[in-house]
Design goal:
- With 490 residues, the protein is α/β, with parallel strands linked by helices.
- It has two domains: 2-247 and 454-474, Aldehyde Dehydrogenase, Chain A, domain 1 (3-Layer(aba) Sandwich), CATH 3.40.605; 252-433, Aldehyde Dehydrogenase, Chain A, domain 2 (3-Layer(aba) Sandwich), CATH 3.40.309.10.
- It has helices at 40-58, 62-78, 80-91, 95-117, 154-166, 179-191, 206-215, 228-238, 261-273, 290-306, 325-340, 374-377, 393-401, 416-425, 462-467, 482-489, and strands at 2-4, 6-8, 11-13, 20-24, 31-36, 123-124, 131-139, 142-146, 169-173, 199-201, 221-225, 243-246, 252-255, 285-289, 344-347, 364-367, 384-390, 408-412, 430-433, 455-456, 469-477.
């Protein structure tokens, strides 16, 4: 069992209070390590170190920062097997999914190196003939970054890599339940020889260390991925700082009567059960036309029955446990509420028995979801495919948009005009046509729609770099003095 520490100012340190907490695997129940339990004073130490770090970064050119990101990618690649193994035990996802996440992490660092080098700005034509106006992008300074447990390597990379590439220093607060693999990612950054203070890792409870980083006047901007409720609290505590918030989703999947049902069922099942449903873009509300509803429901149920739920370290496992008890309890609560309102469970419906922990959850398909049920109103974040029947396009659109969240939606239809009709009217930041709600690539802009509780800003490729930099406008007066003009013509 390892005793893991904080990383502040280029050194591994104990918490100033000396407190520690245990990291237990959701897959086995075993203690993986003990970690330093950071305090507000530790967070303040990290912020001070980040201010030193931003001065080190300011001396690096864009090309040097790009090479730094490439060195991190190389370090992650060298440790690929160990990181995947730790990720499986720390988070609970099947080993194949863990390997894919490590590969995305490598790609994320390499993408940031590329995008930073070609983040061009403009020279702006102006009315005054003596003026030249141009723009440049500059780092915002010290970023507080708070990341979740569902993708504990890939999501931090979505902030850390472009943040560093842009020249920001960072104080990183990872989710407590996946802090072991976060420490290993930090070791990769250290191996890549990042400047002291450029990235600082503080493990511990979010309401303590996270709150300090968000509210402290020493941080210039905040990035966060997580629940809508926590994101809204962060926005209040950040008190006007620039925010990059990727928050909850309860995205609707609409299966129209002309859909390719083979494709629709396959993609929707992936949307519901990938990473045990612990994805902000998961297919958590499935609206199906009356003519095809029963066939879709039975096909999804058959798919769910065949999913192999088991120890995530086994190569044949297709779904592992949920990460923590609160998310499992929320899934319990949502299902109980739906059943009480008349819903019908076709398969699954609760926790699985016979496993080392109580976090293994059956892949569940449930029909007859009512509009007022919790599973329709809130993000569940478990392996549940809830179906609702609709009669008309208008009814489907109204139901889909009747939600406080608006991150990702999906539409299945063979008709191009119907596809555009829904793509332009669904109130989500992303609409995928004939594809799972979980489809995304690292360079595509990702984020919620205005007026919903799914976040502010866009992550993905150059879009993250643009969010994590300030656009500086420079106005130059280029007129020549009378004396200089006379010398030229004399």
């Amino acid at each position: 069992m390892d005793d893991l520490r904080l990383y502040i100012g280029g050194s591994w340190l104990e918490s100033e209070a000396g407190a520690r907490f245990e990291a237990r695997s959701p897959a086995t129940g075993a203690v993986l390590a003990t970690l330093a339990e950071g305090t507000r004073e530790d967070a303040r130490r990290a912020i001070a170190a980040a201010h030193d770090g931003k001065r080190h970064l300011a001396r690096l050119s864009v090309w040097e920062r790009a090479r730094l990101c490439l060195r991190v990618a190389d370090a992650v690649e060298r440790r690929r097997a160990v990181l995947a193994q730790t990720l499986t035990l720390d988070q609970g996802k099947p080993h194949a999914e863990a390997e894919a996440e490590v590969d995305s992490t490598i790609e994320g660092w390499r993408n940031a190196a590329d995008h930073a080098k070609w983040l061009e700005t403009s020279v702006i034509p102006v009315e005054d003939p003596h003026k030249r106006v141009l723009t440049i992008r500059q780092p915002r300074g010290v970023y507080g970054v708070i990341t979740p447990w569902n993708f504990p390597l890939n999501i931090p990379t979505e902030y850390l890599a472009p943040g560093l590439a842009a020249g920001n220093a960072i104080v990183w607060i990872p989710a407590p339940t996946t802090s072991v693999v976060a420490v290993q990612l930090m070791e990769c950054l250290e191996e890549a020889e990042i400047p002291p203070g450029a990235v600082n890792l503080v493990t511990g409870p979010g309401p303590v260390v996270g709150d300090e980083v968000v509210a402290n006047p020493g941080t210039d901007a905040v990035g966060f991925t997580g629940s809508s409720a926590t994101g809204e609290q962060i926005a209040r505590r950040a008190a006007g700082k620039p925010l990059l918030l990727e928050l909850g989703g309860n995205g609707p999947t609409l299966i129209l009567d002309d859909a390719d049902l083979d494709r629709a069922v396959e993609a929707t099942a992936f949307g519901s059960f990938f990473n045990a449903g612990q994805v902000c873009s998961a297919a958590e509300r499935i609206l199906v036309h009356r003519r095809v509803h029963d066939e879709v429901a039975e096909r999804l149920a058959d798919h769910a029955r065949r999913i192999r739920l088991d120890d995530p370290r086994k190569p044949e496992t297709e779904m592992g446990p949920l990460n923590n008890e609160p998310v499992a309890a929320k899934t319990d609560r949502h299902l109980a509420d739906a059943i009480a309102r008349g819903a019908n469970v076709l398969t699954g419906g609760g926790r699985a028995t016979g496993f080392p922990t109580n976090l293994y959850y059956q892949a569940t398909v449930i029909t007859g979801i009512t509009r007022d049920s919790l599973i329709n109103r809130e993000e569940t974040f478990g392996p549940v495919a809830p179906l609702t029947m609709f009669e008309s396009e208008g009814e489907a659109l109204a139901w889909a948009n009747d939600n406080t969240l608006g991150l990702v939606s999906a539409v299945f239809t063979r008709d191009l005009s119907r596809a555009f009709y829904f793509a332009e009217r669904l109130r989500t930041g992303i609409v995928n046509v004939n594809e799972s709600t979980n489809y995304w690539e690292l360079h595509i802009p990702f984020g919620g729609v205005a007026g919903k509780r799914s976040g502010v800003g866009r992550i993905g490729g150059k879009h993250t770099l643009m969010e994590m930099t300030d656009l500086r406008t420079i106005c130059l007066d280029v007129r020549r003095s009378d004396r200089e003009g006379s010398l030229r013509t004399g």
